[in-house]
TrEMBL record:
Gene Ontology MF: a single term: D-alanine-D-alanine ligase activity
Domain ATP-grasp as annotated: residue spans: 117-324
Highest taxon of the lineage: Bacteria
Pfam families linked: Dala_Dala_lig_C, Dala_Dala_lig_N
Binding site for Mg(2+) 2: E291, N293
UniProt function note: Cell wall formation.
Name this polypeptide is given: D-alanine--D-alanine ligase
Location relative to the cell: Cytoplasm
Amino acid sequence: MTEPAPAPVEATGTDLQHLRALVLAGGLTFEREVSINSGGQVVEALTRAGVDAELHDADAELLPGLAAAPVDAVFIALHGATGEDGALRAVLDLAGVPYVGSPAAACRLAWDKPAAKSVLRSAGVATPDWVALPHSTFRELGAGAVLDLIVARLGLPLMVKPATGGSALGVQKVTRVEDLPAAMVSCFAYGDTVMVERFVDGIELALSVVDFGDGPQALPAVEIAPESGVFDYTSRYTPGLTEYHAPARVDDAVAARAAEVALTVHRVLGLADLSRTDAIVTPDGEVHFLEVNVSPGMTETSMFPMAVEAAGHRLGDVLGRLLARRARP
């Protein structure tokens, strides 16, 4: 049996119609445009649900504005470091501003992909073997020698990705040794530390989790089938380049295992309210954790809204209920 979806969400006048929310989007990261798109979709969905929602950038006017005109709660639709490394949430905590999402410390851990993988592997979650190294290591020890050791240890093909970051920016699949140096150089454009991970073939799933206060619950898994075979930035945000299936075309046993992995990730990392875990299901049905997103995308091609719809809910009702839970008393 699959993990049950959340109970039906009712958007009542008492719950949402008097709720005033600020949706944060934008920021100064590589993912700014994606974030603005997410934020616009969130405001639209919340407005349809009866919430008074306004879009705002994470800039120097944010804190004075919140002090002058407090809102009931903030929804963070920021992607990249601004919204996911915990720093902004720590500032909101200092200012006493309630927000939807995971606390700062949990975000810092989830943001660091190698650290999150280490913690989850210790908790018994399968994840592909990896090595994470800063740019200085290649410079000081010689890139050729280090890359030779990586290939000898992990084999081919490999996935090369920044150790922090989202939207698959800088992510490349490497099938030939001679292509690895260029992939590393490209990856370092998005961060000082690169993570090289053993490629695992299988079905890619997006596993969304929500928690309305009675414990985290897994939404239906979304299957991702990119035309190129790699779910990179272009495949994510260009309509028509990726097929999505919600719920995923996997049997009940695999769906249940995938849901349990997502719930374990959410609990072990100390996440709150909502999250989206990316995973691969191997041909033998084993679910491998790849990474987790504490600020899931909300664009037209994002998987969290697809999972909400597959569960029979409306996005605005779900996000509104999360806001109502965190709102000022």
